[in-house]
Amino acid sequence: MKDGVVLNINGDHYKFSLGDRRGQIPYSETLVQTLRDRIGLQGKLGPTLREKIGLTDPEPPLSCGEGFCGRCAVLIDGKAIASCMTLTSECGGKKIVTLEGLRNKKTGEPDPVVNAVLDYPGFICRFCTPGIIAASQSLFNQNPHPSESEIQAGLAGNYCRLEKICGIRTQLVAHLAKVSASH
Ligand code: FES
Ligand code: FES
């Protein structure tokens, strides 16, 4: 679309014109800005996620803004991508799935891999949880039975600020490896 972009987000289509005029999306706008400020998606799974892990932070899932922490990841054509490093103007024709889209539309129940992450009891502050959900879903999309080392590599881009204290990621890798072996 010339001077415009149509975004496919969680199966819904959003049409924007591109440019610097009021109401347009600047070519420099990042996807996390568009998702958060224009569409109102904040990386939540709705009531189920809130009930399960208490993720009630009203802030959108943006943290470092520099591609470092992985917290803002969304799935683009099935792969986890840092939305703070992705230009909205380049997302036309791609299938974008946010955390809100990783659930059954009728029941609201999170998808199985998401549930597996949510069932992990070791998260403490949950800062890293949105990014770990996206990274795990991306990994299982590409490899339904990842090994422990593949899970370790798949989560490597996600910063958990309590990892050094609690070893959360190491335990989560073992937890997901059981999920991988059980289906
Ligand atoms: S906020 Fe995007 S990677 Fe940290
Ligand atoms: S549990 Fe707090 S950052 Fe990972």
Quick take:
The protein is α+β, with helices and mostly antiparallel strands and 183 residues long.
How is the secondary structure organized here?
Elements: E1 4-9, E2 12-17, H1 31-39, H2 47-53, E3 73-76, E4 79-82, E5 95-97, H3 112-119, H4 129-142, H5 148-154, H6 163-166, H7 168-181
Parallel strand pairs: 1-5
Antiparallel strand pairs: 1-2, 3-4, 3-5
The structure holds FE2/S2 (inorganic) cluster (2 copies).
Please provide a written account of the structure:
There is one protein chain. This protein is an alpha+beta fold and 183 residues long. It has a single domain (4-181), classed as Roll (Ubiquitin-like (UB roll)), CATH 3.10.20. The protein is built from seven helices and five strands, in the order ββααβββααααα. It has helices at residues 31-39, 47-53, 112-119, 129-142, 148-154, 163-166, 168-181; strands spanning 4-9, 12-17, 73-76, 79-82, 95-97. The chain has a five-stranded mixed beta sheet. Helix 3 (112-119) packs across helix 4 and helix 5 crosses helix 7 (168-181). It is globular and about 50 Å long. Mean pLDDT is 84; it is low at 45-60. Residues 62-65, 67-72, 82, 84 line the site of one FE2/S2 (inorganic) cluster.
